[in-house]
């Protein structure tokens, strides 16, 4: 980019559970999509991992908020604050001044015009000079290295935190798609319910998510790794 670069390009996966920011082909921010706010002033106390550590353990003056629900923005103000904080985490060392931001943001394929506008407004208020949208299944296909321009069908299943995106892609476009609200958050709730019913124990959302990450697998059988 250099000292006098006028534009900084960011790719943002604004997820229900986690938000990822990519700059120059590298992941520079990978944080939970959560923000802790001061109840009285509305100012952010923590964002990302630090806010997640506070989740479920705060006193009455601090509130933790997950701005996105089911893949869309549920709290516009918190989403803007979170985006601003995460963008600040992107290092701008070596520049004499802050560049203008060009953003590409992933959105669920089933997003309505109102939901798309909410994402765009949040990004623009967070400092985005140019904001472009791309549907999550298409972004997943490109990231997986699929030839989306080929005259053949590719089916993509993208399981996120709030939504599962299923799409058939051919000739550079989405032929058909479906967005369902059964995804990671539902799995987390199912783990909480199972632990309560089977072991008569109550666990929090954060603990259930840690269990899900530790034992979850997309394959029915995994090859065990043996340390030498």
Name some characteristics of this structure.
228 residues; five-stranded mixed β-sheet; 13 strands
Question: How would you explain this protein's 3D organization?
Answer:
The structure is a single chain. The chain has helices spanning 49-54, 76-88, 113-125, 136-143, 184-199, 205-215; strands at 7-14, 18-23, 26-32, 35-38, 44-47, 62-65, 68-69, 72-73, 100-107, 128-135, 154-159, 164-170, 173-180. The strands form four sheets. A five-stranded mixed β-sheet has the order 3-2-1-9-10. The chain has a three-stranded antiparallel β-sheet with strand order 5-4-6. By secondary structure, it is of the alpha+beta class. Helix 2 crosses helix 3 and helix 5 crosses helix 6 (205-215). Helix content is 29%, strand content 32%. The chain contains six helices and 13 strands. It is globular and about 55 Å long.
Brief sketch in words of this structure:
The chain is α+β, with helices and mostly antiparallel strands. It has helices at 49-54, 76-88, 113-125, 136-143, 184-199, 205-215; strands spanning 7-14, 18-23, 26-32, 35-38, 44-47, 62-65, 68-69, 72-73, 100-107, 128-135, 154-159, 164-170, 173-180. The protein has a five-stranded mixed sheet with strand order 3-2-1-9-10.
Radius of gyration: 19 Å
pLDDT below 50 for ≥5 consecutive residues: which ranges?
none
Helix vs. strand class: alpha+beta
Distance between the termini: 43 Å
The H-and-E topology, N to C, reads as: EEEEEHEEEHEHEHEEEHH
How many DSSP E strands?
A: 13
Overall 3D form? globular
Which band does the percent of strand residues land in?
Answer: 25-35%
Mean pLDDT: 85
How many individual helices?
Answer: 6
Specify the biggest β-sheet: 5 strands, mixed
- The residue fraction in helices comes out at 25-40%
> Largest sheet, order of strands side by side?
3-2-1-9-10
């Amino acid at each position: 980019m250099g000292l006098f670069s006028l534009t900084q390009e960011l790719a943002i996966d604004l997820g229900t559970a986690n938000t990822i920011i990519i700059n120059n082909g590298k992941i520079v921010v990978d944080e939970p999509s959560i923000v802790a706010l001061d109840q009285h002033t509305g100012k952010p106390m923590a964002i990302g991992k630090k806010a997640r550590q506070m989740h479920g353990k705060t006193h009455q003056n601090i509130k933790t908020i997950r701005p996105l629900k089911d893949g869309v923005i549920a709290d516009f103000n918190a989403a803007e604050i979170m985006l601003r904080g995460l963008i600040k985490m992107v290092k701008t060392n070596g520049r004499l001044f802050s560049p203008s931001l060009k953003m590409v943001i992933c959105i669920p394929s089933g997003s309505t015009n109102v939901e798309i506008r909410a994402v765009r407004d949040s990004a623009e208020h967070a400092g985005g000079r140019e904001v472009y949208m791309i549907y999550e299944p298409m972004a997943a296909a490109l990231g997986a290295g699929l030839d989306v321009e080929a005259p053949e069908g590719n089916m993509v299943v993208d399981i996120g935190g709030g939504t599962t995106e299923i799409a058939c892609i051919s000739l550079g476009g989405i032929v058909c798609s479906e967005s369902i609200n059964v995804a990671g958050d539902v799995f987390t709730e199912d783990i909480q319910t199972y632990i309560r019913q089977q072991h008569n124990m109550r666990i929090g959302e954060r603990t259930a998510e840690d269990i899900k990450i530790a034992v979850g697998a997309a394959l029915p059988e995994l090859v065990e790794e043996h340390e030498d």
